[in-house]
From TrEMBL:
UniProt entry tagged with the keyword Plastid: no
Cell location: Cytoplasm
Family: Belongs to the class-I aminoacyl-tRNA synthetase family.
An example molecular function term from Gene Ontology annotations: ATP binding
SMART domains assigned: Arg_tRNA_synt_N (SM01016), DALR_1 (SM00836)
A single cellular component GO annotation: cytoplasm
Domain Arginyl tRNA synthetase N-terminal stretches: 3-91
Originating species: Idiomarina ramblicola
Reactions mediated catalytically: tRNA(Arg) + L-arginine + ATP = L-arginyl-tRNA(Arg) + AMP + diphosphate
Protein's name in the database: Arginine--tRNA ligase
Enzyme Commission number(s) of this protein: 6.1.1.19
Gene: argS
InterPro entries per UniProt: aa-tRNA-synth_I_CS (IPR001412), Arg-tRNA-ligase (IPR001278), Arg-tRNA-synth_N (IPR005148), Arg-tRNA-synth_N_sf (IPR036695), ArgRS_core (IPR035684), DALR_anticod-bd (IPR008909), Rossmann-like_a/b/a_fold (IPR014729), tRNAsynth_Ia_anticodon-bd (IPR009080)
Ranges spanned by the short sequence motif 'HIGH' region, renumbered to the chain: 127-137
GO biological process, one term: arginyl-tRNA aminoacylation
Length: 580
């Protein structure tokens, strides 16, 4: 609908240009907003205010001219001029009804899929494998996964890339520790990677001999020594299975097949350096190979290097990312490369993108975006820590979520068996953690607060999951009783109309989520939808409605609400429950 309206306005502007009201060479950017206040219609534009100056006219007059130039159509029932010259548009009921029907008759809720499907390569999760996944790994996995799902739903080919860190100097220490343990106890101790890492670190700090061995092992590993590679592979395998367990519990779609580890680029790294040298971009600085780009200066205006090779010959994080970016465009065919990585890496990605374009690691019209996100904070306003002050392992955090969800559910009366309730608690617990993250603006820090996320009030997972079961219960009660799915939709009550208006916005919201890589738009939308359904449900009798036509129409609105809630939550990576 938004696009149709844009089209109508573009035609109106074309006509005004032809008449000479607006200068023909003036480029016009049509901006449409969704007014908060219902009395301002369904869409609003400040077009007349923007164009008044170039048109040498007053905004209200120009607004009138624009309104008059909008072609005859069935989309709008009303256009009003408000305030200094805003134009408010109201969508016609016929249009709304057509749209609702189209949504009901389509498996994909009639969303506009991309006319040209793009290949979108999405880098997310990407933890370092030396340690077990902790709370800091939550956001990338959850947000990246939701955006991936939305892009796929909108008709794009999504290639997931889990760029795990498996090749740093810490691995020497871990291998030395594995070596020192006999085979069996190594296996046992690896079952808790966090303590394994700590124990190895302790040894490394305490024993000079051990530290030497660790350094020796890194060099051997990096030169391809078979014994080291075997130990290393064993470690990586255990670490990746830990990750997979977390992904499976979280309902994050990543699998082993999506892992494209840092080490996978090893063979390409000498080529990266040679390529940069060939382009005349390399500078040697204190024995290290660096690239200095005009665009990046330090605080004092001093040139800022991107170091691509250390003095001893070792390669760096940036070198690997240059190899990866090339692979993503040239091998994977990426048209758009998305990176969901902590906001603190913004400069790194900025530099890599600029350098990759300059040096020709990527070519043509490729879109490169780093989508940063803020930190998960504790209630004390500092990065979230476990009770003992250490980092919180994700696995433990999820256990706690399930435990707390069960407590929450036990406060409610239910006809679920204990077993069913446990299953429900798993979904509610994990979903609450995910939803708390997804519903916040991606770019800001947020406070991790169990009480806020595990409640049936407000913009939370329990609220939405419960709202879904409520809609669903209508159809349980209806049972096998048929209702006419081809019945007309009636929107006479203001609550019906408000619900309908929200339902048809689904398409628009999903496109916003993709454009900005911001899942919280979808959360806000679903929360609002659930609220409008609730008002409708309370005010408009459905099952005990005697008027057959009205009953059918309301059942259809309820059914579409259920479908949109289910699909919307699924795109956020949250499963729905039939009962709770
Ligand atoms: N492993 C890195 C870290 O934990 C994140 C990797 C992000 N992806 C990338 N292509 N650099 O900080």
């Amino acid at each position: 609908m938004k696009e149709q309206l844009e089209q109508l306005l573009a035609e109106a502007i074309g006509q005004l240009k032809a008449q000479g009201t607006i200068p023909a060479d003036h480029s016009v950017n049509i901006q449409l907003d969704r007014p908060r206040d219902k009395s301002h219609g369904d869409f609003a534009t400040n077009l007349a205010l923007m164009l008044a100056k170039p048109a040498k006219s007053n905004p209200r007059q120009l607004a009138e001219a624009i309104v008059a130039a909008v072609p005859e159509n069935s989309l709008l029932s009303k256009m009003d001029i408000a305030g200094p010259g805003f134009i408010n548009f109201t969508i016609s009921q016929d249009q709304l009804k057509d749209q609702l029907t189209a949504m009901l008759n389509s498996d994909s809720l009639n969303v506009d899929v991309a006319k040209e499907s793009k290949t979108i390569v999405i880098d997310y999760s990407s933890p370092n494998l030396a340690k077990e996944m902790h709370v800091g790994h939550l956001r990338s996995a959850i947000i990246g996964d939701a955006v991936s799902r939305v892009c796929e739903f909108l008709g794009h080919k999504v290639v997931r890339q889990n760029h795990v860190g498996d090749w740093g100097t810490q691995f020497g220490m871990l291998l030395a520790y594995m070596e020192a343990l006999d085979n069996q106890s190594a296996e046992y101790e690896l079952s808790n990677l966090e303590t394994f890492y700590k124990a190895a670190k302790q040894r490394f700090d305490d024993s000079e001999e051990f530290a030497d061995r660790a350094r020796q092992l890194v060099v051997k590993l990096q030169s391809g020594d078979e014994y080291c590679l075997k130990l290393w592979n064993q470690f990586i395998d255990v670490s990746l299975s830990h990750c997979q367990e977390v992904y499976d519990r979280l309902g994050v779609k990543l699998t082993r097949a999506d892992v494209m580890a840092e080490s996978a680029y090893n063979d390409k790294l000498p080529g990266v350096i040679e390529h940069l040298r060939g382009k005349g971009l390399l500078t040697e600085d204190q024995g290290a190979q660096c690239v200095f780009l005009e665009e990046y200066k330090g605080k004092e205006g001093e040139p800022l290097p991107i170091i691509v090779q250390k003095k001893g010959g070792g390669y760096l994080y940036a070198t690997t990312d240059l190899a990866a970016i090339e692979y993503r465009q040239k091998q994977l065919g990426g048209d758009h490369l998305m990176y969901f990585v902590d906001a603190r890496q913004a400069l790194h990605f900025d530099q890599i993108f600029t350098l990759a374009r300059k040096a020709g690691f990527v070519e043509g019209e490729i879109q490169l975006d780093h989508y940063g996100f803020g930190t998960v904070m504790g209630k004390d306003g500092k990065p979230y820590k476990s009770r003992d002050g250490g980092v919180t392992k994700l696995a433990d955090l999820l256990d706690e979520a399930e435990r707390r969800a069960l407590e929450l559910l036990q406060q409610k009366t239910t006809d679920l068996t204990e077993e069913q309730q446990k299953r429900v608690a798993e979904v509610v617990g994990i979903s609450s953690v995910k939803y708390a993250d997804l519903s916040k603006n991606r770019t800001s820090d947020y406070i991790f607060d169990w009480n806020h996320m595990l409640t049936f009030e407000g913009n939370t997972a329990p609220y939405l999951l419960y709202a879904y079961t409520r809609v669903n219960s209508i159809f349980y009660r209806l049972g096998d009783t048929a209702f006419d799915r081809d019945a007309d939709i009636i929107l006479n009550d203001e609550r019906e109309l408000a619900l309908a208006n929200q339902l048809v916005r689904f398409n628009e919201v999903l496109h916003q989520v993709q454009d900005k890589a911001m899942p919280h738009f979808l959360c806000g939308y679903l929360f609002d939808l659930a609220g409008r359904f609730s008002s409708f449900y309370e005010a408009c009798p459905i099952l005990n409605q005697e008027d057959e036509a009205l009953r059918n129409s309301r059942l259809k609105l309820s059914m579409l609400t259920a479908n949109v809630l289910k699909q919307g939550l699924d795109l956020l990576g949250i499963p729905t429950l039939e009962k709770m």
